Amino acid sequence: MSRLEVVKTGKLWIGGKWPRSESGATFPVTNPEGEVVARCASASRKDSRDAVEAARSGLGKWRDSTAMLRGQVMYRAAEMLEGRAAELTEALQFGGAGAAAARQEVDASIDRMVMLAGWCDKIHQVLGCQNSVAGPYHCFTIPQPCGVVVAFSPAEPALLSLVTLVGAAMSIGNSVVAVAPPQAGLAAVLLGEVLAVSDVPAGAVNILTGNQKDLVEPLGGHREVAVVVSGGLSKASRVAVRMAAADGIRRVHAVPWTGSAWEDDEETCSPWFLEQFVEFKTLWHPAAS
Amino acid sequence: MLARRAASFTKRSIKADSKRSGLRLAVSMLDLTTLEGADSPELVRALCRRAIAPCPVPPLNPPIPSVAAVCIYPRLVPIVREALAGSSVRVASVATGFPSGQAPLAMRLQDTQAAIEAGADEIDMVISRGAFLAGRCDEVADEVRAVQDVCGDAHLKIILETGELETPDNIRRCADLVIEAASRDRDLGDGQVFVKTSTGKMSPAATMPSVLLLLESVRDHFNATGVRIGVKPAGGIRKAKAALHLLVMVRETVGQDWLTPSLFRIGASSLLDDLVRQLLWTSRGHYAAMHDVAVT
Predict the structure, then answer these.
(1) Where are chain A's structural domains?
(2) Which of B124, B157, B273, B274 is catalytic?
(3) Does the A8-286 domain belong in CATH 3.40.605.10?
(4) Which of B19, B157, B196, B273 is an active site residue?
(5) Peptide bond before B99: cis, by omega within 30 degrees of 0?
(6) pTM value?
(7) Nearest Cα to B233, choosing from B253, A43, B222, B96?
(8) Which of chain A's residues have a Cβ under 8 Å away from the Cβ of B292?
Protein backbone atom coordinates (compact mmCIF):
# COMPACT_ATOMS: atom_id res chain seq x y z
CA MET A 1 0.00 0.00 0.00
CA SER A 2 1.37 3.43 -0.86
CA ARG A 3 1.79 5.67 2.15
CA LEU A 4 0.34 9.11 2.62
CA GLU A 5 3.06 11.69 2.13
CA VAL A 6 3.20 14.32 4.87
CA VAL A 7 4.02 17.68 3.33
CA LYS A 8 5.74 20.05 5.70
CA THR A 9 3.97 23.21 6.83
CA GLY A 10 6.57 25.53 8.31
CA LYS A 11 5.29 27.51 11.29
CA LEU A 12 6.41 30.77 12.79
CA TRP A 13 8.83 30.60 15.70
CA ILE A 14 7.71 33.01 18.41
CA GLY A 15 8.66 32.92 22.06
CA GLY A 16 9.99 29.36 21.74
CA LYS A 17 6.67 28.12 20.36
CA TRP A 18 5.58 27.21 16.85
CA PRO A 19 2.29 28.97 16.18
CA ARG A 20 0.60 29.10 12.81
CA SER A 21 0.03 32.62 11.59
CA GLU A 22 -2.76 34.35 13.47
CA SER A 23 -4.26 35.13 10.06
CA GLY A 24 -4.17 31.47 9.04
CA ALA A 25 -2.46 32.45 5.79
CA THR A 26 0.26 30.30 4.25
CA PHE A 27 2.27 30.43 1.05
CA PRO A 28 3.47 27.48 -1.02
CA VAL A 29 7.12 26.57 -1.44
CA THR A 30 7.75 25.16 -4.90
CA ASN A 31 10.67 23.37 -6.50
CA PRO A 32 12.10 24.58 -9.82
CA GLU A 33 9.59 22.35 -11.61
CA GLY A 34 6.77 24.30 -10.01
CA GLU A 35 5.55 21.47 -7.74
CA VAL A 36 4.48 22.41 -4.22
CA VAL A 37 6.95 20.76 -1.83
CA ALA A 38 6.01 22.52 1.41
CA ARG A 39 4.07 25.40 2.84
CA CYS A 40 5.12 28.19 5.17
CA ALA A 41 3.09 30.43 7.45
CA SER A 42 2.61 33.98 6.24
CA ALA A 43 3.11 36.28 9.23
CA SER A 44 0.54 39.01 9.86
CA ARG A 45 0.91 42.35 11.62
CA LYS A 46 -0.38 40.76 14.82
CA ASP A 47 2.20 37.98 14.57
CA SER A 48 4.91 40.61 14.26
CA ARG A 49 3.58 42.36 17.35
CA ASP A 50 3.57 39.06 19.26
CA ALA A 51 7.13 38.38 18.11
CA VAL A 52 8.35 41.73 19.44
CA GLU A 53 6.64 41.10 22.79
CA ALA A 54 8.27 37.67 22.93
CA ALA A 55 11.64 39.15 22.01
CA ARG A 56 11.27 41.73 24.75
CA SER A 57 10.54 39.14 27.39
CA GLY A 58 13.23 36.81 26.07
CA LEU A 59 15.84 39.57 26.04
CA GLY A 60 16.74 39.48 29.73
CA LYS A 61 17.75 35.86 29.91
CA TRP A 62 19.91 36.01 26.78
CA ARG A 63 21.47 39.39 27.55
CA ASP A 64 22.28 38.45 31.14
CA SER A 65 23.79 35.07 30.39
CA THR A 66 27.57 35.14 30.31
CA ALA A 67 29.30 35.90 27.05
CA MET A 68 30.96 32.51 27.16
CA LEU A 69 27.65 30.71 27.53
CA ARG A 70 26.19 32.66 24.60
CA GLY A 71 29.17 31.57 22.55
CA GLN A 72 28.62 27.96 23.51
CA VAL A 73 24.95 28.10 22.63
CA MET A 74 25.77 29.56 19.22
CA TYR A 75 28.49 26.98 18.69
CA ARG A 76 25.91 24.33 19.48
CA ALA A 77 23.68 25.91 16.83
CA ALA A 78 26.52 25.43 14.35
CA GLU A 79 26.69 21.76 15.35
CA MET A 80 22.98 21.40 14.76
CA LEU A 81 23.26 23.13 11.38
CA GLU A 82 25.93 20.59 10.46
CA GLY A 83 23.59 17.77 11.43
CA ARG A 84 20.83 19.07 9.18
CA ALA A 85 23.07 20.12 6.30
CA ALA A 86 21.43 17.74 3.85
CA GLU A 87 17.95 19.03 4.55
CA LEU A 88 19.12 22.65 4.37
CA THR A 89 20.87 21.97 1.07
CA GLU A 90 17.67 20.51 -0.33
CA ALA A 91 15.68 23.54 0.86
CA LEU A 92 18.09 25.89 -0.91
CA GLN A 93 17.83 23.81 -4.09
CA PHE A 94 14.06 24.35 -4.09
CA GLY A 95 14.92 28.05 -4.46
CA GLY A 96 16.77 27.24 -7.68
CA ALA A 97 20.37 26.85 -6.50
CA GLY A 98 22.43 24.03 -7.98
CA ALA A 99 23.40 21.16 -5.68
CA ALA A 100 27.02 22.28 -5.31
CA ALA A 101 26.15 25.95 -4.77
CA ALA A 102 23.49 25.05 -2.20
CA ARG A 103 25.89 22.84 -0.26
CA GLN A 104 28.51 25.58 -0.42
CA GLU A 105 26.06 28.08 1.07
CA VAL A 106 25.18 25.69 3.88
CA ASP A 107 28.86 25.19 4.66
CA ALA A 108 29.45 28.94 4.62
CA SER A 109 26.48 29.41 6.98
CA ILE A 110 27.91 26.90 9.46
CA ASP A 111 31.30 28.62 9.33
CA ARG A 112 29.59 31.98 9.78
CA MET A 113 27.74 30.77 12.88
CA VAL A 114 31.02 29.52 14.37
CA MET A 115 32.77 32.81 13.68
CA LEU A 116 29.97 34.84 15.23
CA ALA A 117 29.88 32.44 18.20
CA GLY A 118 33.53 33.25 18.71
CA TRP A 119 32.84 36.97 18.88
CA CYS A 120 30.52 36.62 21.90
CA ASP A 121 33.28 36.79 24.51
CA LYS A 122 35.78 38.81 22.47
CA ILE A 123 33.84 41.76 21.14
CA HIS A 124 34.06 43.56 24.48
CA GLN A 125 37.83 43.63 24.33
CA VAL A 126 37.84 44.99 20.80
CA LEU A 127 35.09 47.61 21.05
CA GLY A 128 35.46 48.48 24.72
CA CYS A 129 38.14 50.79 26.04
CA GLN A 130 39.49 52.66 29.00
CA ASN A 131 39.24 56.40 28.56
CA SER A 132 41.81 58.85 29.71
CA VAL A 133 40.19 61.37 32.03
CA ALA A 134 41.40 64.26 34.16
CA GLY A 135 40.76 63.37 37.80
CA PRO A 136 41.06 60.42 40.12
CA TYR A 137 38.75 58.12 38.16
CA HIS A 138 38.87 55.05 36.01
CA CYS A 139 36.61 55.60 33.05
CA PHE A 140 35.50 52.63 30.95
CA THR A 141 33.38 52.37 27.85
CA ILE A 142 31.84 48.93 27.41
CA PRO A 143 29.65 47.52 24.62
CA GLN A 144 26.19 46.33 25.59
CA PRO A 145 23.27 44.94 23.60
CA CYS A 146 20.75 47.46 22.24
CA GLY A 147 17.67 45.34 23.00
CA VAL A 148 15.25 43.96 20.43
CA VAL A 149 16.72 43.80 16.93
CA VAL A 150 14.46 43.37 13.90
CA ALA A 151 16.24 41.87 10.89
CA PHE A 152 14.76 41.72 7.39
CA SER A 153 16.79 39.15 5.46
CA PRO A 154 17.05 39.01 1.67
CA ALA A 155 15.84 36.23 -0.63
CA GLU A 156 19.39 35.48 -1.72
CA PRO A 157 21.50 33.97 -0.17
CA ALA A 158 18.55 32.70 1.88
CA LEU A 159 20.36 30.90 4.68
CA LEU A 160 23.72 32.65 4.81
CA SER A 161 22.22 36.14 5.09
CA LEU A 162 19.79 35.05 7.79
CA VAL A 163 22.49 33.33 9.82
CA THR A 164 24.67 36.44 9.50
CA LEU A 165 22.05 38.92 10.65
CA VAL A 166 20.62 36.74 13.42
CA GLY A 167 24.04 35.56 14.59
CA ALA A 168 25.53 39.05 14.66
CA ALA A 169 22.69 40.44 16.75
CA MET A 170 22.74 37.38 19.03
CA SER A 171 26.47 37.47 19.65
CA ILE A 172 26.19 40.88 21.31
CA GLY A 173 23.32 39.66 23.50
CA ASN A 174 20.40 41.25 21.66
CA SER A 175 17.14 39.40 21.12
CA VAL A 176 16.03 39.11 17.52
CA VAL A 177 12.92 39.16 15.39
CA ALA A 178 14.00 37.95 11.95
CA VAL A 179 11.68 38.29 8.99
CA ALA A 180 12.49 36.14 5.96
CA PRO A 181 10.82 36.67 2.57
CA PRO A 182 8.80 33.82 1.02
CA GLN A 183 11.70 32.70 -1.20
CA ALA A 184 13.78 32.10 1.93
CA GLY A 185 10.84 30.75 3.96
CA LEU A 186 11.80 27.11 4.21
CA ALA A 187 15.44 27.83 5.06
CA ALA A 188 14.23 30.24 7.76
CA VAL A 189 11.96 27.62 9.30
CA LEU A 190 14.81 25.13 9.33
CA LEU A 191 17.11 27.68 11.00
CA GLY A 192 14.42 28.14 13.64
CA GLU A 193 14.28 24.40 14.19
CA VAL A 194 18.04 24.36 14.58
CA LEU A 195 18.09 27.19 17.12
CA ALA A 196 15.16 25.64 19.00
CA VAL A 197 17.31 22.65 19.93
CA SER A 198 20.42 24.69 20.69
CA ASP A 199 19.46 25.96 24.15
CA VAL A 200 18.55 29.43 22.90
CA PRO A 201 16.18 30.82 25.58
CA ALA A 202 12.54 31.19 24.54
CA GLY A 203 11.99 34.49 22.78
CA ALA A 204 15.69 35.36 22.39
CA VAL A 205 15.29 34.62 18.69
CA ASN A 206 11.98 34.73 16.81
CA ILE A 207 11.64 33.91 13.15
CA LEU A 208 8.80 35.05 10.93
CA THR A 209 8.23 34.24 7.28
CA GLY A 210 6.04 36.11 4.85
CA ASN A 211 5.62 39.32 2.97
CA GLN A 212 8.20 41.71 4.42
CA LYS A 213 6.48 44.75 2.96
CA ASP A 214 3.43 44.23 5.18
CA LEU A 215 5.54 44.06 8.34
CA VAL A 216 7.82 47.01 7.71
CA GLU A 217 5.47 49.55 9.23
CA PRO A 218 4.33 47.72 12.40
CA LEU A 219 7.83 46.48 13.21
CA GLY A 220 9.53 49.77 12.41
CA GLY A 221 6.98 51.64 14.51
CA HIS A 222 6.98 49.37 17.56
CA ARG A 223 8.66 51.36 20.29
CA GLU A 224 10.00 48.25 21.99
CA VAL A 225 12.30 47.70 18.98
CA ALA A 226 15.81 49.14 19.33
CA VAL A 227 17.38 48.36 15.96
CA VAL A 228 16.03 47.58 12.52
CA VAL A 229 18.48 46.08 10.06
CA SER A 230 17.56 45.63 6.45
CA GLY A 231 19.27 42.99 4.37
CA GLY A 232 17.07 43.06 1.34
CA LEU A 233 14.25 45.55 1.61
CA SER A 234 13.29 47.61 -1.40
CA LYS A 235 14.09 51.30 -1.32
CA ALA A 236 10.43 52.13 -0.68
CA SER A 237 10.34 49.73 2.29
CA ARG A 238 13.57 51.15 3.68
CA VAL A 239 12.06 54.60 3.56
CA ALA A 240 8.90 53.26 5.25
CA VAL A 241 11.02 51.76 8.06
CA ARG A 242 12.79 55.06 8.59
CA MET A 243 9.51 56.93 8.69
CA ALA A 244 7.96 54.48 11.16
CA ALA A 245 11.08 54.45 13.33
CA ALA A 246 11.51 58.21 13.35
CA ASP A 247 9.51 58.96 16.49
CA GLY A 248 11.76 56.96 18.77
CA ILE A 249 15.46 56.45 19.06
CA ARG A 250 15.46 53.29 16.99
CA ARG A 251 18.47 52.76 14.81
CA VAL A 252 17.88 51.77 11.21
CA HIS A 253 20.69 50.15 9.26
CA ALA A 254 20.82 48.76 5.74
CA VAL A 255 23.58 46.29 4.97
CA PRO A 256 25.45 46.96 1.72
CA TRP A 257 25.83 43.35 0.63
CA THR A 258 24.05 41.56 -2.18
CA GLY A 259 24.60 38.11 -3.69
CA SER A 260 28.11 36.76 -3.24
CA ALA A 261 29.18 39.74 -1.10
CA TRP A 262 27.51 37.89 1.82
CA GLU A 263 30.26 35.26 1.51
CA ASP A 264 32.95 37.75 2.52
CA ASP A 265 33.92 36.75 6.07
CA GLU A 266 36.13 39.81 6.55
CA GLU A 267 33.22 42.17 5.99
CA THR A 268 30.32 40.25 7.50
CA CYS A 269 32.16 39.26 10.68
CA SER A 270 33.93 42.56 11.10
CA PRO A 271 33.59 44.14 14.54
CA TRP A 272 32.50 47.31 12.73
CA PHE A 273 29.48 45.43 11.42
CA LEU A 274 28.74 44.03 14.87
CA GLU A 275 29.04 47.54 16.28
CA GLN A 276 25.66 48.31 14.68
CA PHE A 277 24.05 46.08 17.33
CA VAL A 278 25.94 47.62 20.25
CA GLU A 279 24.96 50.28 22.74
CA PHE A 280 27.96 51.79 24.49
CA LYS A 281 27.92 52.44 28.19
CA THR A 282 30.52 54.57 29.92
CA LEU A 283 31.30 54.00 33.59
CA TRP A 284 33.23 56.19 35.99
CA HIS A 285 34.84 54.58 38.97
CA PRO A 286 36.81 56.35 41.72
CA ALA A 287 40.48 55.51 41.60
CA ALA A 288 42.92 55.55 44.49
CA SER A 289 45.02 58.64 43.95
CA MET B 1 -21.32 23.99 30.41
CA LEU B 2 -20.01 26.67 32.78
CA ALA B 3 -16.60 26.63 31.13
CA ARG B 4 -18.17 26.78 27.68
CA ARG B 5 -20.41 29.68 28.58
CA ALA B 6 -17.48 31.52 30.19
CA ALA B 7 -15.31 30.86 27.15
CA SER B 8 -18.01 32.17 24.81
CA PHE B 9 -17.46 35.69 26.14
CA THR B 10 -13.90 35.62 24.86
CA LYS B 11 -15.06 35.19 21.27
CA ARG B 12 -16.55 38.63 20.72
CA SER B 13 -14.84 40.93 18.27
CA ILE B 14 -14.32 44.33 19.89
CA LYS B 15 -12.83 46.93 17.59
CA ALA B 16 -12.22 50.63 17.12
CA ASP B 17 -14.53 52.87 19.16
CA SER B 18 -15.99 50.12 21.33
CA LYS B 19 -12.47 48.91 22.09
CA ARG B 20 -11.35 52.40 23.01
CA SER B 21 -14.29 53.01 25.31
CA GLY B 22 -13.93 49.52 26.79
CA LEU B 23 -10.28 50.14 27.60
CA ARG B 24 -11.06 53.48 29.20
CA LEU B 25 -13.88 51.93 31.19
CA ALA B 26 -11.54 49.18 32.38
CA VAL B 27 -9.02 51.77 33.58
CA SER B 28 -11.72 53.59 35.52
CA MET B 29 -12.73 50.29 37.16
CA LEU B 30 -9.24 49.36 38.31
CA ASP B 31 -8.33 48.76 41.91
CA LEU B 32 -4.62 49.40 41.41
CA THR B 33 -3.12 47.00 43.87
CA THR B 34 0.17 46.43 45.60
CA LEU B 35 0.25 43.86 48.37
CA GLU B 36 3.89 43.01 48.84
CA GLY B 37 5.91 42.70 51.99
CA ALA B 38 8.44 45.03 50.37
CA ASP B 39 5.96 47.90 49.76
CA SER B 40 7.54 51.17 50.85
CA PRO B 41 5.96 54.60 51.28
CA GLU B 42 7.91 55.88 48.25
CA LEU B 43 6.74 53.01 46.07
CA VAL B 44 3.15 53.49 47.15
CA ARG B 45 3.27 57.24 46.54
CA ALA B 46 4.49 56.59 43.00
CA LEU B 47 1.62 54.16 42.55
CA CYS B 48 -0.83 56.82 43.73
CA ARG B 49 0.48 59.36 41.21
CA ARG B 50 0.00 56.69 38.58
CA ALA B 51 -3.53 55.98 39.84
CA ILE B 52 -4.56 59.60 39.45
CA ALA B 53 -2.97 60.08 36.03
CA PRO B 54 -2.28 56.70 34.43
CA CYS B 55 -0.95 58.02 31.14
CA PRO B 56 2.55 59.43 30.95
CA VAL B 57 3.24 62.56 28.94
CA PRO B 58 2.16 63.47 26.35
CA PRO B 59 -1.43 62.87 27.46
CA LEU B 60 -4.16 61.53 25.23
CA ASN B 61 -7.16 63.63 24.39
CA PRO B 62 -9.43 63.12 26.25
CA PRO B 63 -7.06 62.10 29.06
CA ILE B 64 -7.10 58.52 30.30
CA PRO B 65 -9.34 58.48 33.40
CA SER B 66 -8.10 57.90 36.92
CA VAL B 67 -8.43 54.41 38.33
CA ALA B 68 -11.17 53.63 40.86
CA ALA B 69 -9.07 52.90 43.92
CA VAL B 70 -5.63 52.07 45.24
CA CYS B 71 -5.58 48.85 47.22
CA ILE B 72 -2.90 48.36 49.89
CA TYR B 73 -2.18 46.88 53.31
CA PRO B 74 -3.62 48.77 56.34
CA ARG B 75 -0.22 50.06 57.43
CA LEU B 76 0.03 52.17 54.25
CA VAL B 77 -3.48 53.68 54.39
CA PRO B 78 -2.38 57.04 55.89
CA ILE B 79 0.26 57.51 53.19
CA VAL B 80 -2.16 56.64 50.41
CA ARG B 81 -4.85 58.83 51.95
CA GLU B 82 -2.48 61.78 51.82
CA ALA B 83 -1.20 61.01 48.32
CA LEU B 84 -4.70 60.70 46.90
CA ALA B 85 -6.14 63.74 48.67
CA GLY B 86 -8.21 65.90 46.34
CA SER B 87 -8.57 63.18 43.70
CA SER B 88 -11.50 60.92 42.88
CA VAL B 89 -9.44 57.81 43.62
CA ARG B 90 -10.60 55.90 46.68
CA VAL B 91 -8.49 54.25 49.34
CA ALA B 92 -9.05 50.51 49.62
CA SER B 93 -7.37 48.46 52.30
CA VAL B 94 -7.22 44.73 52.71
CA ALA B 95 -7.94 43.65 56.26
CA THR B 96 -9.13 40.79 58.49
CA GLY B 97 -5.81 38.96 58.51
CA PHE B 98 -5.32 39.11 54.74
CA PRO B 99 -4.51 36.91 52.85
CA SER B 100 -5.11 33.72 54.87
CA GLY B 101 -7.76 34.97 57.28
CA GLN B 102 -6.35 32.60 59.87
CA ALA B 103 -6.00 35.07 62.76
CA PRO B 104 -8.54 35.00 65.64
CA LEU B 105 -11.72 36.94 64.86
CA ALA B 106 -11.06 39.63 67.48
CA MET B 107 -7.70 40.39 65.91
CA ARG B 108 -9.20 40.46 62.43
CA LEU B 109 -11.84 42.95 63.55
CA GLN B 110 -9.15 45.05 65.17
CA ASP B 111 -7.23 44.98 61.87
CA THR B 112 -10.34 46.27 60.10
CA GLN B 113 -10.96 48.92 62.74
CA ALA B 114 -7.42 50.21 62.35
CA ALA B 115 -7.79 50.50 58.57
CA ILE B 116 -11.09 52.37 58.91
CA GLU B 117 -9.67 54.75 61.49
CA ALA B 118 -6.68 55.43 59.26
CA GLY B 119 -9.11 56.56 56.58
CA ALA B 120 -9.86 53.61 54.28
CA ASP B 121 -12.93 54.14 52.07
CA GLU B 122 -13.20 50.48 51.22
CA ILE B 123 -12.28 47.27 53.01
CA ASP B 124 -11.32 44.05 51.23
CA MET B 125 -11.93 41.23 53.72
CA VAL B 126 -11.12 37.54 53.50
CA ILE B 127 -13.52 34.91 54.82
CA SER B 128 -12.51 31.81 56.76
CA ARG B 129 -12.29 29.41 53.85
CA GLY B 130 -11.52 26.57 56.24
CA ALA B 131 -14.78 27.12 58.10
CA PHE B 132 -16.77 27.23 54.86
CA LEU B 133 -15.15 24.06 53.50
CA ALA B 134 -15.81 22.32 56.84
CA GLY B 135 -19.47 23.24 56.51
CA ARG B 136 -19.51 25.84 59.30
CA CYS B 137 -21.46 28.31 57.19
CA ASP B 138 -22.86 30.21 60.19
CA GLU B 139 -19.36 31.03 61.31
CA VAL B 140 -18.64 32.61 57.91
CA ALA B 141 -21.93 34.51 57.93
CA ASP B 142 -21.28 35.79 61.45
CA GLU B 143 -17.80 37.02 60.62
CA VAL B 144 -19.05 38.84 57.52
CA ARG B 145 -21.67 40.61 59.63
CA ALA B 146 -19.17 41.42 62.36
CA VAL B 147 -16.77 42.99 59.85
CA GLN B 148 -19.67 44.88 58.28
CA ASP B 149 -20.51 46.38 61.67
CA VAL B 150 -16.96 47.65 61.99
CA CYS B 151 -16.96 49.03 58.44
CA GLY B 152 -19.88 51.40 58.94
CA ASP B 153 -20.21 53.44 55.76
CA ALA B 154 -17.02 52.10 54.23
CA HIS B 155 -17.70 49.76 51.34
CA LEU B 156 -16.96 46.12 51.93
CA LYS B 157 -15.52 43.67 49.43
CA ILE B 158 -15.73 40.04 50.49
CA ILE B 159 -12.97 37.83 49.11
CA LEU B 160 -14.02 34.23 48.59
CA GLU B 161 -10.63 32.98 47.30
CA THR B 162 -12.36 30.88 44.67
CA GLY B 163 -9.16 28.99 43.95
CA GLU B 164 -9.43 27.32 47.35
CA LEU B 165 -13.12 26.50 47.10
CA GLU B 166 -12.37 23.78 44.57
CA THR B 167 -15.74 23.28 42.85
CA PRO B 168 -18.15 25.56 40.99
CA ASP B 169 -20.91 24.47 43.38
CA ASN B 170 -18.86 25.65 46.36
CA ILE B 171 -18.13 28.99 44.72
CA ARG B 172 -21.79 29.62 43.99
CA ARG B 173 -22.92 28.48 47.45
CA CYS B 174 -20.27 30.60 49.13
CA ALA B 175 -21.24 33.69 47.08
CA ASP B 176 -24.90 33.18 47.95
CA LEU B 177 -23.97 32.69 51.59
CA VAL B 178 -21.95 35.89 51.99
CA ILE B 179 -24.42 37.98 49.99
CA GLU B 180 -27.28 36.69 52.13
CA ALA B 181 -25.31 37.32 55.32
CA ALA B 182 -24.35 40.83 54.27
CA SER B 183 -27.86 41.84 53.29
CA ARG B 184 -29.90 40.10 56.01
CA ASP B 185 -31.94 42.74 57.91
CA ARG B 186 -29.87 45.51 56.39
CA ASP B 187 -30.82 48.25 53.99
CA LEU B 188 -27.88 47.98 51.62
CA GLY B 189 -27.21 50.62 48.98
CA ASP B 190 -26.12 49.62 45.49
CA GLY B 191 -22.43 48.71 45.46
CA GLN B 192 -22.00 48.95 49.22
CA VAL B 193 -21.02 45.31 49.26
CA PHE B 194 -18.89 43.53 46.66
CA VAL B 195 -18.03 39.89 46.22
CA LYS B 196 -14.43 39.43 45.10
CA THR B 197 -12.88 36.31 43.62
CA SER B 198 -9.40 36.13 45.04
CA THR B 199 -6.60 37.55 47.10
CA GLY B 200 -4.19 37.41 44.18
CA LYS B 201 -1.84 35.41 46.39
CA MET B 202 -2.65 32.06 44.83
CA SER B 203 -3.42 30.52 41.48
CA PRO B 204 -5.94 29.93 39.95
CA ALA B 205 -7.42 33.31 40.77
CA ALA B 206 -10.00 35.25 38.76
CA THR B 207 -10.80 32.70 36.07
CA MET B 208 -13.66 33.48 33.71
CA PRO B 209 -15.88 30.67 35.12
CA SER B 210 -15.37 31.80 38.72
CA VAL B 211 -16.27 35.40 37.86
CA LEU B 212 -19.31 34.18 35.94
CA LEU B 213 -20.51 32.30 39.04
CA LEU B 214 -20.25 35.46 41.14
CA LEU B 215 -22.07 37.48 38.49
CA GLU B 216 -24.89 34.93 38.35
CA SER B 217 -25.23 34.95 42.11
CA VAL B 218 -25.38 38.76 42.07
CA ARG B 219 -27.94 38.72 39.24
CA ASP B 220 -30.21 36.32 41.10
CA HIS B 221 -29.93 38.42 44.25
CA PHE B 222 -30.90 41.52 42.27
CA ASN B 223 -33.88 39.77 40.71
CA ALA B 224 -35.07 38.69 44.17
CA THR B 225 -34.43 41.89 46.12
CA GLY B 226 -33.66 44.76 43.72
CA VAL B 227 -30.32 45.41 45.45
CA ARG B 228 -27.18 45.57 43.33
CA ILE B 229 -24.16 43.82 44.80
CA GLY B 230 -20.80 44.65 43.18
CA VAL B 231 -18.34 42.16 41.73
CA LYS B 232 -14.55 42.35 41.74
CA PRO B 233 -12.38 39.83 39.94
CA ALA B 234 -8.78 40.04 41.13
CA GLY B 235 -5.61 38.11 40.49
CA GLY B 236 -4.00 37.00 37.25
CA ILE B 237 -5.66 39.63 35.05
CA ARG B 238 -2.67 41.09 33.22
CA LYS B 239 -3.76 41.82 29.69
CA ALA B 240 -6.17 44.38 28.29
CA LYS B 241 -7.83 41.64 26.31
CA ALA B 242 -8.70 39.75 29.50
CA ALA B 243 -10.23 42.93 30.92
CA LEU B 244 -12.37 43.38 27.81
CA HIS B 245 -13.53 39.77 28.09
CA LEU B 246 -14.64 40.49 31.64
CA LEU B 247 -16.58 43.57 30.55
CA VAL B 248 -18.36 41.52 27.88
CA MET B 249 -19.27 38.93 30.49
CA VAL B 250 -20.63 41.60 32.85
CA ARG B 251 -22.69 43.19 30.07
CA GLU B 252 -24.17 39.88 28.97
CA THR B 253 -24.79 38.43 32.45
CA VAL B 254 -25.94 41.24 34.73
CA GLY B 255 -26.43 43.97 32.14
CA GLN B 256 -25.36 47.51 31.39
CA ASP B 257 -26.12 48.76 34.93
CA TRP B 258 -23.05 46.99 36.30
CA LEU B 259 -20.67 48.62 33.83
CA THR B 260 -19.69 51.30 36.30
CA PRO B 261 -16.85 51.51 38.82
CA SER B 262 -19.37 51.59 41.65
CA LEU B 263 -20.54 48.06 40.78
CA PHE B 264 -17.64 46.40 38.98
CA ARG B 265 -13.96 46.56 39.81
CA ILE B 266 -10.89 44.78 38.55
CA GLY B 267 -8.11 44.17 41.06
CA ALA B 268 -4.74 44.20 39.31
CA SER B 269 -1.31 45.77 39.18
CA SER B 270 0.40 45.22 35.82
CA LEU B 271 -2.92 45.32 33.91
CA LEU B 272 -2.78 49.12 33.90
CA ASP B 273 0.44 49.06 31.86
CA ASP B 274 -1.18 46.98 29.17
CA LEU B 275 -4.40 49.01 29.15
CA VAL B 276 -2.42 52.20 28.65
CA ARG B 277 -0.28 50.60 25.95
CA GLN B 278 -3.37 49.44 24.08
CA LEU B 279 -4.95 52.87 24.41
CA LEU B 280 -1.81 54.50 23.05
CA TRP B 281 -1.86 52.01 20.21
CA THR B 282 -5.47 52.77 19.30
CA SER B 283 -4.72 56.47 19.13
CA ARG B 284 -1.19 56.49 17.71
CA GLY B 285 -1.14 53.40 15.55
CA HIS B 286 2.02 51.86 16.94
CA TYR B 287 2.90 50.04 20.10
CA ALA B 288 4.43 51.80 23.05
CA ALA B 289 7.40 50.27 24.82
CA MET B 290 6.97 49.07 28.39
CA HIS B 291 9.33 51.83 29.55
CA ASP B 292 6.98 54.37 27.93
CA VAL B 293 4.13 53.50 30.26
CA ALA B 294 5.40 51.81 33.42
CA VAL B 295 6.74 54.12 36.07
CA THR B 296 6.80 51.78 39.04
Answers:
(1) 8-286
(2) B124
(3) yes
(4) B196
(5) yes
(6) 0.86
(7) B253
(8) 223
